[in-house]
Amino acid sequence: MDLWIWIVIGVVVILAISFISTYNGLVRARNQVKNAWAQIDVQLKRRYDLVPNLVETVKGYARHERETFEMVTKARNLAQQLTSAGAGERGRVESELSSALGRLLAVAENYPELKANQNFLALQEELTSTENKISFARQYYNDAVLRLNNRTQEFPSNIVASMTGFKAAEYFETTLEAERQAPRVSF
After folding, report:
1. Angle at 59 between CA 115 and CA 132, to 5 degrees
2. Residue-wise pLDDT tens digits, 145-167
3. What is the pTM (predicted TM-score) of this model?
C-alpha cells in the first residue's frame, strides 16, 4: 500500500512540474509576442514623426502635388489612430502608409533640386533606415507569433494553453498586392 501512495505522489509531482513548466513556456512566448509588438510600435512612432517633416520638405519644391501630400497625411493619421487595433488591421493600414510614402518619394524624383537638398536627403535616409527597422521588427514579431502559436497548438502544451486561456496570436502581414510583387528595374 505504501508503494502505491509513493507512485501516485510521484506521478502527481511529475504532472505538476510538467504543467508548471509548460505554463511558464507559454507565458514566455506570449511575453515575447508583446515585446515584439512594442518594438514595432517604437519604429512606427518614429516613422509617424518623420512623415510630416518629409512632406513639408517636398511641399516646398512640389506645390502642385497636393493629392500625394494629402494621401500621405491621411494614411499617417489613420495609422496613428489605429494603435490599439490588431496586427492584421495594423498591417493593412501600415501597408497603405508605406505605399503612400513610396508615391511621395517618386514625386521627389521629378525635382532635381529637391533630390540635392541636404535636409531632404537626410530625411530620406532616416525614413529608409526606419523602414528597414520596421521590416526587422515585423519579422521578429512574426517569429515570436509563430513560437507562441506552435506552443498553443502542439501536444501536450495545447492542453495547458486551452485550460489557462492562451490563444494563438495574429501575424503582422502585408495586405497590399503591390508589396508582394518583386520590384521591376529597367535601364
Report:
1. 55
2. 999 999 999 999 999 999 999 99
3. 0.73
